[in-house]
Design goal:
Chain lengths: ~120, ~120
């Protein structure tokens, strides 16, 4: 079955450490997205990518980095510059066309906790 | 600024007690509106897409409607398994007349249905 796989499901980070969250999709979707979800704040866009080797900052990109070397993969690195990284991280993908209306397919999420 | 507001923040119903969730939006131009269901610790699951005012979509006990300023998710005779957070998101038309596939999410309504 096609879908999006996020790993790990739970991740613990020490102060000053960089960690990378994995996101893989086999839906042949062009676009991929990373969101952060905090209680009472809804989903906030971190980064998104429409095509391979290209990505754009979202609303809260500071302290995060991404790469898009393959269509299927869009890993997110949470760097030590991100001062409050504890959150639930969601990866999503969609078809991308300028005039289209396409919803997202979401992964199951990674819960990151600073220890 | 494009914005999506959902109300109420939380709703507790008895099994069989019908109600509605509200999603009001302010966007320069609406391309479409999405409803998602999210269970605790999981990624959002797609429910409906609505494109234009007056449109309605149904799935089991859920019916989504759309006006020019808001959408309602009506829940008829809910069951405990309908308990979840319901998210609304809009896709806006950009000023150039094209579309961005970026979705703007509301903060969600947490629905609890008691047996």
């Amino acid at each position: 079955d096609g879908g999006i796989t996020q790993s790990p499901k739970y991740l613990f980070r020490k102060e000053g450490q960089n960690v990378t969250l994995s996101c893989e999709q086999n839906l042949n979707h062009d676009a991929m997205y990373w969101y952060r979800q905090d209680p009472g704040q809804g989903l906030r866009l971190i980064y998104y990518s429409q095509i391979v080797n290209d990505f754009q900052k979202g609303d809260i990109a500071e302290g995060y980095s991404v790469s898009r070397e393959k269509k299927e993969s869009f890993p997110l690195t949470v760097t030590s510059a991100q001062k409050n990284p504890t959150a639930f991280y969601l990866c999503a993908s969609s078809i991308w066309e300028g005039q289209g209306l396409y919803g997202y397919t979401f992964g199951s999420g990674t819960r990151l906790t600073v220890v | 600024e494009d914005q999506v507001t959902q109300s109420p923040e939380a709703l507790r119903l008895q099994e069989g007690e019908s109600s509605s969730l509200n999603c009001s939006y302010t966007v320069s131009g609406l391309r479409g509106l999405f409803w998602y269901r999210q269970d605790p610790g999981k990624g959002p699951e797609f429910l409906f897409t609505l494109y234009s005012a007056g449109e309605e979509k149904e799935k089991e006990r859920l019916k989504a409607t759309l006006t020019k300023k808001e959408s309602f998710l009506h829940i008829t005779a809910p069951k405990p398994e309908d308990s979840a957070t319901y998210l609304c998101a809009v896709q806006a038309i950009v000023s150039s007349g094209g579309a961005t596939n970026k979705l703007i999410f509301g903060t969600g309504t947490l629905l609890a249905v008691q047996p």
